[in-house]
Specification:
globular; SIS_dom_sf; Glutamine--fructose-6-phosphate aminotransferase [isomerizing]; alpha+beta; two-stranded parallel sheet; 2 domains; about 90 residues; about 50% helix
Length: about 90
């Protein structure tokens, strides 16, 4: 099953991102995020279970490198019991 998901990743990424790219620019307005809101992001939290958690651990390096923002990765079943400073 994991190999199936790995092979489906290019399609999943395209299907997720292409509706949000307009005129060569990323448009997250449907999420209530405009350019100003995105500029005010100071930390990223990635929450996942199983393989999604492990992808989050790998993604942390990408986000920290490209966005220059601190990233925390947590197991979802444990995160619900935390009281993180958001």
């Amino acid at each position: 099953f994991m190999m199936k998901e790995i092979h489906e990743q290019p399609t999943a990424v395209r299907d997720t991102l292409s509706p949000r790219i307009k005129d060569g620019r990323i448009d997250l307005s449907e999420l209530g995020l405009d350019e100003e809101a995105i500029k005010n992001v100071r930390r990223i939290y990635i929450i996942g279970c199983g393989s999604a958690y492990h992808v989050g651990v790998a993604a942390r390096y990408v986000f920290e490198s490209l966005a220059r923002l601190p990233v925390e990765v947590d197991v979802a079943s444990e995160f619900r019991y935390r009281d993180p400073v958001l």
